[in-house]
Structures are given as structure tokens and as C-alpha cells.
Design a protein that fits this description.
By secondary structure, the chain is mainly alpha-helical. The protein is 69% helix and 8% strand. The chain has one domain. It has ten helices and five strands, in the order H-H-H-H-E-E-H-H-E-H-H-E-E-H-H.
Length: 278
């Protein structure tokens, strides 16, 4: 009996290094889903015929920009009057606010300029899990439906298309596809921050509705300073927002992984048979 006890003790306190835990497939998959979203957004627009299918992604960043103006107007107590989107991906948002408060105009202009970056961060954070991604898609679809109250012309067609597509994707997609769609939207909106950055450094905007002062020029007029300095500052804030979104995506994914492990351990403890002493 002593020999058996000694052998058991030496085995329990062996100096052998513990086996390394293999990487969790779900965490690895998160990175690959994000990579897949980048591929969809960057490569598919250059594929003949397929490029026509992803063309609406350009209109999405326009909608986020113009909707941002409307949200900015609401935040300062104004009204979101109308939203127009044109086939060339330009757009115009008409809003009203107290013209006696100079800063209100700057808030409205800034909200539109930061709209795509903020929307990209939201999609990144919601893309950390399939359940959150589905919620995000449905909410975005309902948001597009709400914009029908102010859209005109071609913008109405775009809003209806996005509303139906997002809600259907959120309700009917498999978990993997829901995450991919959500991250595709995040990458597309984030990419627009860079691909359309030239707009930050012009004084006029030419749209399907005519030529008017650019948003950065309106900010400079309201708050003072040169429009180029405001363009650099707004661009830097947008990049910082995207960086925050990426950090939140990976940190959130790690947090969900740890929570799932903790819940699994609790479940195993509750379902494990209880030893009884005879």
C-alpha cells in the first residue's frame, strides 16, 4: 500500500511541462472572417460583372455620410429635412437648425464627415459574434427603413434595397455569413474614410444636386481656421476611430472567448455527478 501511495505521489508532482493549449478555432476564425471581408471589399469590385453586385457598397458610405448630417441636425435640436443619393455616389442632406448659433452648423457638418467611421466602428464591434452581427444587420435595416421618411428619388430606391437586404441577412443568414456580412459593411465604411479622403481638402462639393460649399469649408466658416487644417484634423479623428474599432473587435473577441470558457466550466460543474462517500 505504501509503494502504491508513493508512486501516485511522484506522478502528481512530476516536473514535466504542461501541454500547451491548442488555439481556439472560434478565435482563429474571427481573424479569417475579417480577412475575408477585406478581400470582398477590395477585390470583388475589380471583377467583371461581379463589380455590379458590389456597386451598392459605394452608395452605403454615401448614405452613412448624409445620414450623419441629419443626426447632427437632430442633436442640436434641428430637423432632418431630406436626403438625396445619386447614382454617381454623391449625395445631399438638407437640414434645418438655429442659424443664430454658429456652432450648430459645424456640428451638422462634422457629423456627416465622421458618419462612415462611426458606422464602421459599430459594425466592427457588433461583428465579434454571430448573435450581435445579426442584431446589427436588423438594426441597420430598420435604420434604412426609417430614412424613407426623408429620402427622395434614387435615394428612396437605395434605402429600400438596403432595408430589405439587411433585415433579410440578419434574420436568415447562418452565423458565419451574418458575421461576414457585418464585417464586410465595416470594412467598406472604413475603407471609404481613405478612398474618399480627397473630399476633406476641397472647398466645394459637386453633387447630382449642384455645387455647394464642402463640409470642411462649412466647419472652417463656422469655427474659423483654414479648411485644410480642419481636413487633416477630421481625417486624423476618423483614423483614430477606426483604430479604436479594430482594438474593440479583437479585445471583444478575446473577452467573449473567456466568457464562453467560464460558462462552459460552470455548466460542466453543474452537470458533473456528485461523488458520495459510502
Amino acid at each position: 500500500m505504501k509503494a502504491s501511495s508513493s508512486s501516485s505521489s511522484s506522478s502528481a508532482f512530476s516536473g514535466a511541462a504542461p501541454a500547451r493549449r491548442p488555439p481556439d478555432p472560434a478565435r482563429t476564425r474571427s481573424l479569417w472572417v475579417l480577412v475575408g471581408a477585406v478581400v470582398v471589399v477590395t477585390l470583388l469590385p475589380h471583377v467583371p460583372l461581379v463589380s455590379l453586385l458590389v456597386r451598392p457598397l459605394v452608395w452605403l458610405s454615401t448614405m452613412a455620410h448624409e445620414a450623419g448630417h441629419g443626426v447632427g441636425a437632430l442633436l442640436v435640436g434641428g430637423r432632418f429635412v431630406s436626403l438625396a443619393i445619386y447614382p454617381d455616389a454623391s449625395g445631399v442632406a438638407a437640414s434645418s437648425w438655429d442659424q443664430g448659433v454658429v456652432s450648430h452648423g459645424a456640428v451638422v457638418a462634422l457629423a456627416g464627415l465622421l458618419g462612415p467611421a462611426v458606422a464602421a466602428v459599430a459594425c466592427l464591434w457588433m461583428g465579434i459574434s454571430a448573435r450581435l452581427a445579426r442584431v446589427a444587420l436588423v438594426v441597420m435595416g430598420l435604420g434604412c427603413a426609417a430614412l424613407l421618411l426623408v429620402t427622395t428619388g434614387f435615394g428612396t430606391v437605395v434605402a429600400v434595397g438596403f432595408a430589405l437586404t439587411f433585415v433579410a441577412a440578419g434574420l436568415a443568414s447562418s452565423p458565419a455569413w451574418a458575421r461576414l456580412w457585418c464585417l464586410v459593411l465595416a470594412v467598406d465604411l472604413g475603407g471609404a474614410v481613405f478612398s474618399r479622403a480627397d473630399y476633406l481638402f476641397v472647398t466645394e462639393a459637386t453633387t447630382g444636386g449642384g455645387t455647394m460649399p464642402s463640409d470642411v469649408q462649412q466647419v472652417a466658416t463656422a469655427l474659423g481656421g483654414h479648411h485644410l487644417l480642419w481636413g487633416v484634423a477630421i481625417g486624423a479623428v476618423s483614423v483614430l476611430l477606426l483604430a479604436l474599432g479594430l482594438v474593440g473587435f479583437f479585445v471583444g473577441d478575446e473577452g467573449l472567448h473567456r466568457l464562453s470558457l467560464r460558462w462552459e466550466r460552470r455548466r460542466q460543474r453543474r452537470t458533473a455527478p456528485t461523488a458520495t462517500r459510502s
